[in-house]
Amino acid sequence: MARKSSAPASTPVTTLAPVAATPAPTSGSDTLVRRQPPFLMWYDDNPKTPIAQKIAAAIAAYKMRFPGIEPTLVLVNEAEVTPVEGITVRGMVTVSRHTYWVGQTMAG
Fold first, then answer.
1. Contact, 90 vs 107, CB < 8 A?
2. What pLDDT does residue 106 have?
3. What is the pLDDT of residues 51-104, one digit of tens each?
């Protein structure tokens, strides 16, 4: 015997309020627009590759993808924190294992 659901037949649609666009700075304007530095996500689950080598490959891919931008930060899973010279490696519980987020720290 099939069980009837107590949920309504249709799901209500949530409407979001419109967001005002930020005007672009005009010439002569002193408005400073800060942009978040780009991040690159790198995934490597090869168990034979050392974590330091995976991070180095992720950094190399970042430099190839974003020429002229030097990465300063790599976010990794807390279980994969490995020191890398010249780079801040930060463990975070929200980063999945074998995943490496390469980017820059925000200055200022």
1. no
2. 75
3. 999 999 999 999 999 999 999 999 999 999 999 999 999 999 999 999 999 999
69 domain-assigned:
yes
The answer to whether residues 71 and 62 touch, using CB atoms and an 8 Å cutoff, is yes
Q: What is the DSSP string of 15-81?
A: PPPP-PPPPPPPTT-------PPP-EEEE---TTS-HHHHHHHHHHHHHHHSTT----EEEEEGGG-
The answer to the question of residue 24 being in a domain is no
* Residue 74 bridge partners (DSSP): 89, 102
Per the structure, how many domains does the chain have?
Answer: 1
